[in-house]
Amino acid sequence: MKKVCKKISCILMSLIFMIGSITITAMADEGITVQLNGVQLTFDVAPQMIHNRTMVPMRKIFESLGAEVAWNETTQTITATKDDTKIVMQIKKTDMQVNDKTITLDVPPQIVEDRTFVPVRAVAESFNADVEWDNESSTVKITSKNNSIFALQMADDNLSMLDNRLNIKMPTGTKDAGVWYGKSAESHEETSYILEANGQKLTVVANELFLYSSGNIKDDANTLMKRWSDSSNQYTLSDMKFVNNLDVIEFTPNQMEAVNNTVLIKGAIVKNSDNTLMLIDVYVNEQAFENKDNCINLSESILNTIQSGTRKLNTKAHDEELNGLVSGQKMHISLQDNYVLTNSHGPDFTVFYITKIVTVGDSQPTMGIYSGNYPSILSANISSSQLQKSSDNILGNNIQWTYYKSASDSFMETVFNESKSNTDTKMHIFMHPKADENLDEMKKMAESLKLG
């Protein structure tokens, strides 16, 4: 009889272990996800449901909550510290010390697949975070009040990019950066937003490429990547994504390295409804980059909010006002089809850039109008025998064009006094036509300049 009881006990114990194992596996297969302030966290080992409690790898959850974590192999003790809160836990021990308070855990920390797992609700709530369980999606939703950029809630309102060409959502506390890498540009040419918390920085920069798509954005992206890549800077492209009615190709640097305390995490090429392309880059500083996975997840969450704005590029022939001339005069120019005007201001100068929108892969003609006291003459170091001269009349001034052409480059320029009353202020018009037909268009635009 005793032998029979022992056999039954063994069978029952085996069944219990099997059922427990099946339960854990089933819950893991369902795909438990963890979100921190709306951003999904990525773990190297998936979260597990153990005895009806969600367990997650310790280092990822603690660092995401902004805590420093230490592991003592000898005592198998976990110590996590953030601000004035210190948590101490031990493998297979249900007592968790939070400062001078002892909390009894339903499920103790344990090692799963060579990773130390901790109960997510207990540790998050100990750092003053709110935790909810969404049973329908098997998602743990953590709302943290911590000061890490990865724990900030996504704002409800959209931010305008490129003067309402695009809209995007960013975490709360995001500010308009205004200037990126020392470049002062109008909002319709470049927009940058910066998020800062506890020494961590994330910057999102959007730029107009002034390029038409060829019709295949993946081919466009490959063409641009070849142009931007070099031996030390290569990129991996994603498949095309359809984000809020926009065609988007994301790219990731193969080597993420800091340059001037800045790391490019991810970028996106966006095709708008008018078939023009824009570039969005996401950068972080080295302190934020210590949490590389969080940087990637946050950048992806931001890029997934891109929406088309209401403004379209005006690519038809039209007049534009040149604001910001150093002489204080008002001036207008008549742009040809497919040309756009942008400008950049310095302390004592303004440069107006006129760019022709072309299809990706084609040579792009550009033209500039400099207003200031110290123009940079393109032909200054070129032999006069290589230069051609021609006369013209601009703004009532008899001017002389200087033209240079070689196998690899060509330009045309002229310099004259911007104002008859102030001979110190110069107007320097320079052109890089790329082709003769573009040169004719640019000369017509220069000749269209008028005061008032």
Can you walk through the features of this model?
With 452 residues, the protein is an alpha+beta fold. The protein has three domains: 25-146, Copper amine oxidase-like, N-terminal domain (Copper Amine Oxidase, Chain A, domain 1, 2-Layer Sandwich), CATH 3.30.457; 155-308, Protein Transport Mog1p, Chain A (3-Layer(aba) Sandwich), CATH 3.40.1000; 318-451, Protein Transport Mog1p, Chain A (3-Layer(aba) Sandwich). The chain is built from seven helices and 35 strands. Strands 16, 17, 18, 19, 20, 21, 22, 23 and 29 form a nine-stranded mixed β-sheet that branches. A seven-stranded antiparallel β-sheet has the order 27-28-30-34-33-32-31, with helices on one face. Strand 33 (410-419) and strand 34 (422-432) form a beta hairpin. The radius of gyration is 31 Å and the shape is elongated. The model is unreliable at 1-29 and 180-186 (pLDDT under 50).
List strands and helices in order, with pairings:
Blueprint: H1 2-30, E1 33-36, E2 39-40, E3 48-50, E4 53-57, H2 58-64, E5 68-72, E6 77-82, E7 85-90, E8 95-98, E9 101-104, E10 110-112, E11 115-119, H3 120-126, E12 130-134, E13 139-143, E14 159-161, E15 166-168, E16 175-176, E17 190-197, E18 200-212, H4 217-228, E19 235-237, E20 241-243, E21 246-253, E22 263-271, E23 276-284, H5 286-289, H6 292-303, E24 307-308, E25 318-322, E26 331-335, E27 339-345, E28 349-356, E29 358-359, E30 366-372, E31 387-394, E32 397-405, E33 410-419, E34 422-432, H7 436-447, E35 450-451
Features:
Copper Amine Oxidase, Chain A, domain 1; Protein Transport Mog1p, Chain A; 3 domains; nine-stranded mixed beta sheet; 7 helices; 35 strands; disordered N terminus
